[in-house]
Amino acid sequence: MKNSSSTDKGRSFWQVHVKAQAESGLTQREYCRQNNISYWSFNPWKRRIENGRTGFHEISPAIVQGLPDENKRIEITVNDTIRISVPVGFSSDTLSEILNILGVKR
Fold this sequence. Notes:
alpha+beta; three-stranded antiparallel β-sheet; 4 helices
């Protein structure tokens, strides 16, 4: 499982190379060869960056306030398309399984 620090470093690494390749006038393959980086990694990262996507899901948890303890819930939104609402104290193992089934990487 990747943490956000390593994800940010990876994104920054590829953003620098995507920009440098575009400014170099070299083909993607030639740029990768000259810089000793994988073309097969560079190419999908370039598409993600140019499309404004990182390829990683952002997970934003929120606890609903003002409810009795037995009704408190945690709401998790993934990419503004998937919403999961679970009661406080819900099994983290079960939640991990659900996220894994949905293909959410953290």
